[in-house]
Specification:
The complex is a heterodimer of chains A (about 230) and B (about 425). Chain A is α/β, with parallel strands linked by helices. Chain A has helices at about 45-55, 75-85, 105-115, 120-130, 150-160, 180-195, 205-210, and strands at about 5-15, 20-30, 35-40, 60-65, 70, 90, 165-170, 200, 215-220, 220-225. A six-stranded mixed sheet of chain A has the order 6-7-8-3-9-10. Classes of the chains: A alpha/beta (about 230), B alpha+beta (about 425).
């Protein structure tokens, strides 16, 4: 079982406002190292909600989440922040780059926060990630001076900087045109094939889901079929 | 490293909004400038007004007060030892005003470590004769050297020199008002009649102006020897010893002690001039409250700007949190922003405050009652600068603390899912 990176056990989640609604009921699944998994379902089925629970950013749930075989405590905000920093990389629908910094600094920020390598090393690693994604020439540009597709690639580089156990994506291609979507997908599958990067991507794009190793379908807060 | 990173992020956020930052910093600068200027000026003025009286007032004055004897004969009578005594038509004692054993007391004072210095004094009531006019006046016998050293006597002698009192025999320094009435100048001779009818010719060697007109109209100074001569008294005749201590706060305690030891009346400066202390402390209180009010207003400015910045930077805060910055990190970033505005604005404010005080210090301020003052008084006490910078730090810290806490509580999920 040492291969399991992420595991969810009996996850139940309720929304309390305005009335108590169950959005997730008894979710159980696990993701192994190196898997490229997509999570699909119709709008409102709870797939994003599940992703944010798994990401440790939302702690209001019942059940257990294990990352790297460690159970995530629900109350310790600073500890969870450290876990996110070290073990999880995020790519969202929106890029969320900081306009105050250039591309390189944006990629470096989580690495500097991790404080494992020296400033120069983090910079070197950030350049390396940018090179893998083919955007090293943008390194010194301001974050708001590059195109949408480029921004998303920078966001992926930022997710990669600390060599996370898993990359989580919430509709990372949702805002992109066909060409850029394909490019982002190619990056993901390359990361998976070449670097054995574990990925969990929420998407409602069927063509995207089809091409991943495994697809988890959700409906009304439940996981449907789960071919192992 | 973590701290350095947070400061780096704070700096970038600040510089990205440098206009807002500047406005906030100018608010702090302005309030610190006014705080420093106000306190320097106010306390300069306080010192001036206090000095007007306190510089010339001894910390402790030893003298024999005119009062009824506490040991009335009935107390000594054995038959009436018990019970309460009612004595009517009691009169003040006709004891002499001179201090007994004045030489011995002065010897002892010289050895007392708490005493900065002392100066003997005696006072005579005299008439100044000018033709057929007799002007009532008071003549104090002083030691001009000690008096100048301890009570700034020289500062009030506007023409002539006080040291001439001892150099020229039978000399006198007149109050400006008195000299004006007598129409005399330095080098002229005035005629003085004592209460016992004896007449003396005294040479005017100086004119003094204390700033208190009633005083200048009647007061004159001569050397101790001259006044003793006028009063036909021996050279140990002294009616008061004026003492200045190293620490003015000890005056009441030391006065009580001397009263016991020398069997004499001792009056301390706090009792004699309590109103000055009250006036000073209230003026100081007013300046502090105005200064601090200014700072708090500046604090609200910073609070507003930070609130706005947090509103604008919701996305950035969300992603910082998503990528592993804790709530505490985010809070620190915004506190760094606030405090750096405060420190920067405060330091510039200190400089401007110093500049403005120095400018006020150059403005001419001539008043007849204050002969030694030529410009507005300013007190350059480093304490004000310390308080200024500490307060600018504290107000901006708290102005930043509330928005920063708000930022630290932002839920990244709400922001990210809201898109």
């Amino acid at each position: 079982m040492s291969n399991t990176i992420l595991e969810a056990k009996h996850i139940n989640k309720y929304f309390h406002d305005p009335i108590r609604v169950q959005v997730l009921s008894d979710i159980n699944f696990s993701i192994n190292k190196g898997e490229f998994v997509s999570l699909t379902g119709k709008s409102g089925c709870g797939k994003s909600t599940l992703l944010y629970l798994l990401s440790t950013m939302d702690t209001d749930y019942d059940g257990q989440i294990l990352i790297d075989q460690q159970e995530m405590p629900k109350k310790e905000e600073a500890y969870l922040a450290k876990i996110r920093n070290e073990k999880i990389g995020f790519v969202f629908q929106f890029h969320y780059l900081l306009n105050e910094f250039n591309v390189l600094k944006n990629v470096m920020l989580p690495g500097l926060k991790l404080n494992k390598y020296s400033n120069e090393e983090v910079e070197h690693r950030a350049m390396e990630k940018l090179r893998i994604l083919g955007i090293e020439q943008l390194a010194l540009k301001k974050a708001n001076h590059i195109s949408g597709g480029e921004k998303q690639r920078v966001a992926i580089a930022r997710a990669l900087i600390n060599d996370p156990h898993i990359i989580m994506g919430d509709e990372p291609t949702g805002n992109l045109d066909k060409k850029n979507s394909d490019m982002v997908f190619d990056i993901f599958s390359r990361l998976s094939d070449e670097f054995q990067q574990t990925l969990l991507i929420v998407t409602h794009d069927p063509s995207f889901a089809e091409r991943t190793h495994r697809t988890i379908h959700m409906e009304d807060g439940r996981i449907l079929d789960q071919p192992m | 490293m973590n701290k350095k990173l947070l400061i780096d992020i704070a700096r970038s956020l600040l510089l990205a909004r440098w206009k807002q930052t500047l406005v906030a910093a100018i608010g702090v600068t302005f309030s610190i400038t006014m705080f420093i200027t106000l306190l320097s000026f106010m306390s300069g003025l306080n010192d001036l007004l206090d000095g007007l009286i306190l510089n010339r007032t001894p910390h402790i004055k030893l003298f024999n007060d005119i009062k009824p004897n506490l040991n009335q004969p009935i107390k000594i009578a054995a038959d009436y030892k018990s019970g309460h005594h009612f004595i009517e038509s009691i009169k003040s004692d006709a004891n002499r005003q001179a201090i007994y054993n004045s030489a011995a007391i002065m010897e002892a004072l010289k050895k007392d470590k708490r005493v900065l210095g002392f100066s003997p004094k005696l006072t005579a009531q005299v008439f100044f004769n000018d033709g057929n006019i007799d002007i009532t006046g008071s003549m104090s016998g002083i030691n001009p050297v000690e008096e100048a050293k301890l009570f700034h006597f020289d500062e009030y002698v506007t023409s002539g020199t006080s040291a001439d009192l001892t150099k020229v025999s039978n000399s006198i320094i007149l109050g400006k008002g008195l000299a004006g009435k007598l129409l005399v100048h330095i080098g002229d001779v005035v005629q003085v009649t004592t209460s016992k009818g004896e007449r003396f010719q005294l040479k005017v060697v100086g004119i003094f102006q204390s700033g208190i007109k009633d005083f200048d109209d009647v007061q004159s100074y001569a050397s101790v020897n001259t006044v003793q001569k006028i009063l036909s008294q021996p050279s140990n005749y002294i009616t008061a010893i004026q003492i200045k201590l190293f620490d003015i706060k000890l005056a009441p305690a030391v006065a009580k002690e001397y009263e016991q030891v020398y069997q004499i009346d001792a009056e301390d400066v706090q009792t004699a001039n309590s109103q000055f202390e009250t006036g000073s402390s209230i003026r100081t209180l007013i300046s502090y409250s105005v200064g601090i009010t200014l700072l708090i207003v500046a604090g609200f400015g910073i609070y507003n700007i930070l609130n706005m910045m947090i509103f604008e930077k919701m996305d950035s805060i969300a992603i910082l949190k998503a990528t592993g910055f804790s709530g505490k990190d985010v809070k620190n970033i915004f506190i760094y922003i606030a405090v750096s505005i405060g420190i920067f604005g405060g330091l510039v404010g200190l400089l401007f405050g110093f500049g403005l005080s120095a400018t006020i210090d150059q403005i001419p301020f001539n008043t007849a009652s204050l002969p030694t003052i030529k410009t507005y008084p300013i007190n350059y006490n480093p304490k004000f600068y310390m308080i200024g910078i500490v307060f600018s730090f504290i107000t901006t810290y708290f102005a930043g603390w509330f928005p920063a806490r708000k930022a630290s509580k932002i839920d990244p999920v709400v922001i990210i899912r809201g898109k």
